[in-house]
């Protein structure tokens, strides 16, 4: 009886540790899914780069959006550890790229504002959907399901953040257009007042000359 109680106690502790591990894993994934979009300012003529260390067959998605500056465009490229271009776009305001690593090592992705000589650019971006294959082999089935769920939640959050950035961009464009219309209206009003004043002055001068004659 005593031996059976010890076995039951060990089994209970093992189940508790397993459940705690699963709960901790879920909590860490949910925390990782709540990471905010990164926002950086890139001065004119500068290039800003980041690195992501991946294994073979790891998957990753990169999303970016130019939120302000100049013509709202940026150059972007993603290189493998050998320096080969996996993705290269020029003068884009937004972009999304998903890829599977074919070799392990540091993958570099860069935002370039080198084409601009005056305007700095504000870029919002995020790296999400990273799935490390080597880690998957060590996970329990429920942990894999939790990981996929967290990845789906993160994708939804990224889409929401993308919509927020687009809304901000459209709002800035609308405000800029309203400012231009306002100033152009003021200029037109000033021109009309100027022409009116000149006509009044001219007519007054004209009648004064005729009266003198």
UniProtKB/TrEMBL annotation:
Stretches assigned to the GOLD domain: 47-129
Key words of the record: Membrane, Signal, Transmembrane, Transmembrane helix
Membrane topology summary: Single-pass membrane protein; Single-pass type I membrane protein
Main localization (coarse): membrane
PROSITE patterns given in the database record: GOLD (PS50866)
GO cellular component terms attached to this protein's record: endomembrane system; membrane
SUPFAM superfamilies for this protein: Supernatant protein factor (SPF), C-terminal domain (SSF101576)
Compartment list: Endomembrane system; Membrane
Pfam families for the chain: EMP24_GP25L
Superkingdom of origin organism: Eukaryota
Keyword Signal: yes
PANTHER family: TRANSMEMBRANE EMP24 DOMAIN-CONTAINING PROTEIN (PTHR22811)
Annotated family: Belongs to the EMP24/GP25L family.
Descriptive protein name: p24 complex component
Source species of the chain: Puccinia graminis f. sp. tritici
Name of the encoding gene: EMP24_2
């Amino acid at each position: 009886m005593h031996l059976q109680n010890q076995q039951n106690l060990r089994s209970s502790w093992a189940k508790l540790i397993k459940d705690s591990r699963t709960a901790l894993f879920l909590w860490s994934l949910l925390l990782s899914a709540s990471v905010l979009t990164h926002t950086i300012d890139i001065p004119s003529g500068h290039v800003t780069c980041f690195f992501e260390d991946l294994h073979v067959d790891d998957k990753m998605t990169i999303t970016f959006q130019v939120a302000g500056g100049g013509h709202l465009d940026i150059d972007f490229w993603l290189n493998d550890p050998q320096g080969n271009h996996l993705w290269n776009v020029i003068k884009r305001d937004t972009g999304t790229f998903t890829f599977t690593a074919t070799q392990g090592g540091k993958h570099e992705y860069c935002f370039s504002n080198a084409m601009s000589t005056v305007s700095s650019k504000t870029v919002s971006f995020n790296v999400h959907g990273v799935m490390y294959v080597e880690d998957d082999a060590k996970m329990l089935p429920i942990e894999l399901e939790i990981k996929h769920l967290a990845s789906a939640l993160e994708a939804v959050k990224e889409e929401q953040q993308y919509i927020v950035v687009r809304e901000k961009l459209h709002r800035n464009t609308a405000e800029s257009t309203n400012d231009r219309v306002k100033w152009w209206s003021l200029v037109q009003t000033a021109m009309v007042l100027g022409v009116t004043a000149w006509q009044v002055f001219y007519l007054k001068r004209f009648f004064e000359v005729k009266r003198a004659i």
